[in-house]
Design a protein that fits this description.
Blueprint (H helix, E strand, L loop, with lengths): L44 E7 L1 H4 L53 E4 L23 E2 L2 E2 L1 H9 L3 E8 L7 H13 L13 H4 L4 H24 L8 E5 L19 H4 L7 H25 L5 E5 L17 H4 L9 H4 L27 H15 L7 E5 L15 E4 L3
Parallel strand pairs: 1-2, 1-5, 5-6, 6-7, 7-8
Antiparallel strand pairs: 3-4, 8-9
Length: 416
């Protein structure tokens, strides 16, 4: 969701959390410019992704994690987020559009990733430009709806996938508060974050309603962009994608609450009760606002991709998976790595200081395996050009395997 946990990097408790997470997808191939004749209903199909860091590819560089040698988990290398035509840098700094992102489902379908790590529903044109799902146009760049409109005019865009709203709830600040509270209070006098006034304010009925309205406006902007580009509603599908649970409930952590191992080794410094609250309250509230907005906008061509439980069994610090040194594997290329390592990236603190290859903003995001798992889910939603809704979960949990395309095999089941 959000990507700006920068203040965590300044914690000075001496806890070195070097980590990395999932990586096993093939970098997205360079795509030839669309033919001049391509456009609404004409040409090879395209899938376009819009939204924030949970769909842009944030943390998609890392496949699993190691506190001993980052190279064991470095699947995509330093150029992981380079998305300009020459592959030499980012089109928008810190959008972190990884080549492992879900947009690139392949199989004759082209992918275009317009999402941006840190994005909210509306564009932020400050010192760190973050395009929202709107029609902003200025010297710093354009909003994602405007970028979609311009791209769709010369491409046969058949499916637009949107994941947005987490940053509107201030998810990064919530995580920051929870980790700081964990690091600055002892296990015999726990300072929880779920009852902090600054955190609770994000989930009041009034704020939930306000975010839901903003998400509905963003989805409406997507429809307007496609209409402006010349599309009828029956020529494309809007897929609303929810957020996955990144951590287990408190009882599912493999590190004790006592001491600081949970953060210093695992990179998951949360008290059990806060983790329970995150899964029971935060995630359903954010996803509920997103799904409510999809209903409010009243479009006839909407599908839902429910990611709530997509990483269950592979979440950060969850029992059953571990760091490379904990599970006895050499690196991410080792057979079985996708099944025995985490699919969510560690929460970073001082491990981002200096010449570290890590970014604070990669914290608590789907890593390489997670990104590829979401891609596998999206391919099933695409359904050979007849998009369908569904809930995605890990296929064959405990014996997870890779498909011929190098992705974790996922199960897409009908929505309740």
């Amino acid at each position: 969701m959000t990507t700006h946990l920068r203040t965590l990097a300044h914690l000075t408790l001496g806890l070195l959390t070097t980590a990395a997470l999932v990586a096993t997808a093939t970098p997205a191939p360079a795509l030839a410019p669309p033919l001049a004749a391509d456009g609404p209903g004409v040409g090879a199909p395209w899938v376009v992704t819009l939204g924030d860091s949970y769909i842009s590819g944030e943390a998609g560089r890392w496949a699993g994690a190691s506190n001993r040698d980052y190279r064991r988990a470095d699947a995509l290398g330093a150029s992981a987020y380079h998305d300009n035509p020459g592959g030499t840098g980012e089109l928008i700094p810190r959008c972190h559009r990884a080549s492992s992102a879900e947009a690139y489902i392949g199989g004759g379908v082209n992918g275009l990733n317009l999402a941006c790590s840190g994005a909210k529903t509306a564009t932020s044109a400050g010192s760190n430009f973050k395009p929202g799902i709107d029609f902003w146009s200025g010297s710093a760049g354009k909003g994602q709806a405007l970028m979609l409109q311009e791209a769709a005019a010369t491409r046969n865009v058949r499916m637009v996938v949107v994941s947005i709203g987490g940053n509107d709830f201030g998810f990064a600040s919530v995580v920051q508060t929870c980790v700081v509270n964990f690091l600055t209070s002892p296990s015999w006098w726990k300072n929880y974050c779920h009852d902090d006034s600054s955190v609770a304010a994000a989930f009041t009925p009034a704020n939930v309603a306000a975010v839901r309205a903003r998400v509905a406006q963003a989805l409406g902007n997507v429809a307007t962009a496609m209409s402006n580009a010349g599309y009828r509603a029956d020529q494309w599908t809007l897929v609303v994608q929810t957020y996955p649970s990144p951590v287990p409930n408190g009882s599912g952590f493999r590190y004790s609450e006592s001491g600081y191992t949970r953060q210093s080794t695992g990179g998951c410094g949360l008290w059990n009760r806060d983790a329970d609250w995150a899964n029971a309250t935060v995630l359903p509230t954010i996803n509920g606002a997103l799904l409510g907005a999809a209903s409010d906008v009243g479009l006839p061509n909407v599908r839902t991709l429910d990611m709530t439980h997509a990483f269950d069994g592979k979440r950060l610090c969850e029992q059953g998976v571990g760091l490379y040194e904990e599970v006895g594997l050499a690196d991410w290329r080792t057979p079985g790595a996708v099944d025995r390592t985490e699919w969510v990236n560690q929460i970073r603190t001082v491990s981002t200081i200096g010449d570290s290859p890590y970014y604070v903003q990669e914290s608590l995001h789907p890593s390489y395996w997670g990104q590829l798992a979401m891609r596998n889910c999206l391919r099933q939603v695409w359904n050979s050009g007849a998009p369908r809704s569904g809930s995605c979960t890990v296929g064959d949990l405990g014996t997870a395997r890779l498909t011929p395309t190098g992705e974790p095999a996922m199960h897409l089941t009908p929505l309740p």
